Amino acid sequence: MQKPYYLLLLLLLLMGQSLTSWAQEAVPVTGSVLTDAGQPLPGATIFIKGTFIGTSTSRDGGFELRTDFSNGPVVLSVSFVGYVTQELTLSKPDNGIKVTLKPNPIQAAEVIASASRKEENILQAPVTVEKVTSEQVLRLPPPDVQVGLNQFKGIDVNGTSMLMNSLSTRGFNSPKSERLIQLTDYFDTQSPSLNINSGNLQGMPEIDTESIEIIHGPASALYGANAFNGVLIQNSKDPFVTEGLTLRVRGGGRELFDGQLRYAKRIGQKFAFKVTGAYLTADDWLANNYSATDRRVENRNNDQGSTLGYDAVNNYGDVAFRVPDSYPIADLRGKTLFMPGFAEQTLVGTDERAKSLKVQPSFSYLLTNTIKVTVGGSYSRGTASYQSSSRYRFKDFGTNQYHGEIKGSRWFVRGQSVQDFGGNSYDLNLLGSFIQNSPIATGSGTTYAQRYFGAYLNEYATSRGKGQTNEQAQQTAFSLVNGGAFQLDPNSAEFRNLRSQIISDATPGRGARLNPSSLLNEGNAQYNFRLAETADLIVGAAYRKFRLGSNGNLFSDIEDRIQNSEFGGYAQFTKKLLDERLNVALAGRVDAFKNFDPAFSPRASVVYSAGATRQHNFRASFGRAFRSPTQLDQYIRLDVGQLLLLGNVDNGFQGYSLTRVGAAGPLAIDVASLKLERLSTYEVGYKGAISDKLAVDVNYYRNSYNDFIGAQRFNGNPDGSRPASFGAAGSRILQVWTNANQEVNTQGAALGLTYAFAPALKLAANYTLNVQDGTDGQDADFQTYFNTPKHKYNVGASGTVISNLSYALNYRWAQGHEYGTPFAVGQLADYSVTDAYLGYNFAKMGLTLQGGGSNIFNANNIQVYGGPQIGRLLYLGLQLDVK
């Protein structure tokens, strides 16, 4: 991989330059920040407005920074979570500044930059957006910061293991999070090979998180084609502002260990660096659903408990065998026998520990007080389970990321390079199947599966010859072959050797190892033109290039890496009218793709701010977004046994339906090649402060999807041609991704309430409604997988009981619903979770004792059908902060 050493070289060259704007002598400014009760406020941030010069207060609330008065007065901006930001103008140095911040318990004065690509008050955002502060982040339940985000309205989290979690908003949830983009300091954190955001495995540790912002609904007009159902942005702490050492250690149930460290230091006035690291390990959540796999996934399946055997959701290696028409006893002809597979726990074996290791250094340099250069990297490795067309054990899976940014007060230029590594990952379905189809002994021509089915057929025939009925003979044969003598013992050395051999082999058709290693190089830039005091024009552009590699193990890249690229440009005009109470914005973006036609994504919004302090804000917007099929949708080639998964960007496919039958048999179908998915959305909402203690946020949306991307299964030839007949020699059950030929409509609403009785008690409650409308002409072969609870709510309380004791408690409930992936389809029961946090701070020592847990009552909490129960996880820990 080519590493961007040029960024480091650029930084060194710039550090050596003598810049005239820094030639003036900076002088110190000192003071303190207090609460309205006169108590010191440690951790408050102080910036010189319009610059990158800033600092934070110490334990006693004191601060010092250096500034230059040669160009006139400067404005200090002082802020802290839960307080109203205050600005103070200084015309000369002052070493006795005292700033008193007033409480803002409902966070109505928070500033965001995600919704409009520029800073604005969160109440006046043109679309639905949530902001999670650093204080809230540290109170979220373990083990993954993103798990706790489903405490907020409209956000769904889908967990397929302890550390593999996928976020979505407004429907069509999935373990892949392909409709929501995830950014860390505005850099994409997805795996280039899989196009997934694997929870926080590639994100930042909580102790370095300044805030998290989540945009609900489409944001393609500003963020590109895959900002389809939302954007999640994690913002890290600035080493110029938040210096010192932070160390956090937690331990708890399931042999949990979670250690995080952050060290940041400013050297002089121009240079600062930070190093952040995190390591987490625990016994993972493993899936154990042994219900019969739905016939929409395995159309040959028998009922659960059948004496012919059946394919179970979380058994792997349930090899199928169709009894031939030549079999002498007619009652069994054409029936499908299933060999019992292996449980997930058995196949995962000693790889059952969830793990996450992250190391993230960065270096920042101020070229001037308004221009900052930052370069950094991220090394991440993890072990978790992922679900899509199969269940996969990602072992030592990770990414290397290198990024750089040059940023001014009204512009930025960014670039990054990311390479992912499959490590020692493997496919559980393939592992189970290849074990069953291995020879029973070295040099033998008989496999374990052949021995099993042969014994079943022989015993069935013998039993019928003794006068048993069909049902009795099936039971006798089933009892014989499931007695243990005809299956490989999972506790045997032979099993362990086969498992080790197969998970180490990446050869298609023989091994289960998945070891893709793909690259993503991207760059983007933006400039904000100030057209007038009340008008702005933002313009930007972005480019990304994928280089996909798997050596034919995952993609159709038999000879060389597959190259794919995208390019886009956007603009947004905003204008404030009516004494700046009416904010109108028009945005649009054009994206060009290698495999698809160019697409235009517009967004129009209007916000009206009413009230004496503009505390009541009414908004309406219309947006159109496009989703580019994932790299897997476009280029996959993966044989998972019962079906062959293929990419679909060439000339489409011809075949036969698995569900529609005519007089002559299964109907012939044509499957068109992929194109972009389109979404149009209307939204109205209100966000405001009813009083100093009560905040309300409510919204309604309606979505219309066209060319919806989903999975389609059919019988066809792998080269795309139509077989001579259904099931003809050489044909397979194929799965490809294609577009629906009908419109898919959804709608929903969300309501959030926050009431701050006192510092000791703040109540929060929210409700979310999501509905997929009935669609006429739904193709039975086409699967949309809405995967979203119709009704969901949260009720929570938090506060600081005394000056040093803080707590948070949240109860979440979601209505059961159908959940489908290409791996499994079924009904989820209602699920609920109670999370808790308790912390006691020894302020003089900089030490906080912490305790709490997620799902503390161990309630039913299966979020993905075919996934595990996400059970109770309790912890105790401590955090040390040294300024």
From TrEMBL:
Occurrences of domain TonB-dependent receptor plug (ranges): 124-231
Main location: membrane
Keyword annotations from UniProtKB, A to Z: Cell outer membrane, Membrane, Receptor, Signal, TonB box, Transmembrane, Transmembrane beta strand, Transport
Bilayer topology term: Multi-pass membrane protein
Lineage, broadest ranks: Bacteria, Pseudomonadati, Bacteroidota, Cytophagia, Cytophagales
Entry superkingdom: Bacteria
Signal peptide as annotated in the record: 1-23
Protein family according to the UniProt entry: Belongs to the TonB-dependent receptor family.
Name of the protein this chain belongs to: TonB-dependent receptor
Residue ranges occupied by any TonB-dependent receptor-like beta-barrel domain in the UniProt entry: 380-856
Subcellular location, record wording: Cell outer membrane
GO molecular function: siderophore uptake transmembrane transporter activity
InterPro entries assigned to the protein according to its UniProt record, in alphabetical order: Beta-barrel_TonB, Beta-barrel_TonB_sf, CarboxyPept-like_regulatory, Plug_dom, Plug_dom_sf, TonB-dep_rcpt-like
Keyword Flavoprotein: no
Cross-referenced PANTHER family: HEMOGLOBIN AND HEMOGLOBIN-HAPTOGLOBIN-BINDING PROTEIN 1-RELATED (PTHR30069:SF29), TONB-DEPENDENT OUTER MEMBRANE RECEPTOR (PTHR30069)
One biological process term in Gene Ontology: siderophore transmembrane transport
Classification via SUPFAM superfamilies: Carboxypeptidase regulatory domain-like, Porins
UniProt keyword annotation of Signal present: yes
GO CC annotations on file: cell outer membrane
